[in-house]
Predict the 3D structure of the following.
Amino acid sequence: MLNRIAEKLDAGDFLSREEGLFLFGEDVSLHRLGVFADRLRRRINGNVGWYNINTHLNPTNRCTLRCPLCAFHAVPGSSKAYTLTFDEMLRRASEAVLAGCTELHIVGGIHPENPYSWYRDIVSRIREIGPRLHIKAWAAPEIAHFAASSGMSVEEVLRDLREAGLNSLPGGGAEIFAPEPRRQIAPKKIDADTWLAIHGTAHRLGIPTNATMLFGHVESVADRVDHLLRLRDLQGESLQSGHGDDAGTGFDAFVPLVYQSHERLPLEPLPAASILRTVAISRLLLPNIPHIKAYWVTFGVALAQMSLGYGADDLDGTIRGERVHHEAGSPAPTSLGVEELRSLIAETGLEPVERDSRYHPVKQYRSSG
């Protein structure tokens, strides 16, 4: 079967579910898998390793969903519960602009009291401070909540947020699409069909998004393969559904996220080889999604760097101020500087290139991260 897979990859054909499962098996060496994935990465992205200068903003950790997988949310009455004021959020946005950030990534909890207008105002007021800042905001579960609480449709919410200044959606909330593990780790979160429908609607409106998969918890490798194939199917539909200037909008990147074990859902961590295998198979099963991120916050810096040889082409960025995964105990640094990102990429033999949020090279090299 491996020879057939190699032939299909060389021909640019999609791999099947059966072939994806085969690649997860012990009969396929990790080294061979890495060779296949690296070859495809080079075909899609050349010799480039991407990074960007970005800041994360998590406005609140109060959340009605209280997912077992999440160490970020605070239970009612907890001393850890917080909601940032607008002054605090605008100060963070101003700091991001002054630091040379091109992107502000905003996700948080689904607050039990704050209305949709509060979330919209976050976007519109940050847009005033950073007119050139790319605002990547609100994961699909948040979008679904905005629609339900405001009486608007998902499409109306997305149009309204775009008018307020939103540029794209992050990929959070996908977790794993398979119903049973999803029920165990995120029982109150929107289901897979709803997540996919929200991203499909965004794509039809010309709003690009990211896609994610949280793995290393209670899912099976079959669940991972099925998750990836559903993303591939939606990407295929989205790339054909746009009109005019919006034609071809879909997922810019796929972000595999490694589950961070914590006291609410303690599990054995995945071996590094399993993580690298999942990254490589993600690249091979998703040839129509152009970029694969090695998200160093959940991988750890060393393994993220290694992933650049297993199909990933992007180290994400400086990621200033991320709290969601660090609250779960991620041992990764709270931020990386530009020089470190460039060195990590260059050490793998790739050319480090600063990008904007849509993977356009930022021509002028800025030395401060």
User: Anything to note?
Assistant: The two ends are 46 Å apart (CA to CA). The domain at 35-352 is CATH 3.20.20.70 (TIM Barrel). The first helix runs from residue 2 to 11.
